[in-house]
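Researcher: Structure prediction, please.
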Amino acid sequence: MADLDSLTEYHLEKARTTDHGRSAEVLVHDGPLRQTLLALAAGVELGEHNSPPAASILALRGRLRVTALDGDDDVPAGQLRVLTHERHAVTALEDSAFLLTTVTSIPRP
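Model: Predicted structure follows.
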């Protein structure tokens, strides 16, 4: 069982002290299901990338911005956002951590 509070603190501290401003750990890898804890220092962006067939982010700490073709969406701590099936970027508006849930091997609609 993963202690999300402890892992969040650990990865936030690591993100704050690394040159690239991020830290991540896969917590669940079960068939096509992945759950990954990611921490980003304020201002760090995960540049535009493709979304897997199914994905969501749950902001655990801080505040994130998801930029996609349908516009920008701020995601504060405690909020869950489905990632659409289009290219998007994620930026930490402040030191932030989130749980990324993906399903990787289902056909896209």
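Model: The radius of gyration is 13 Å.
Researcher: Thanks, that helps.
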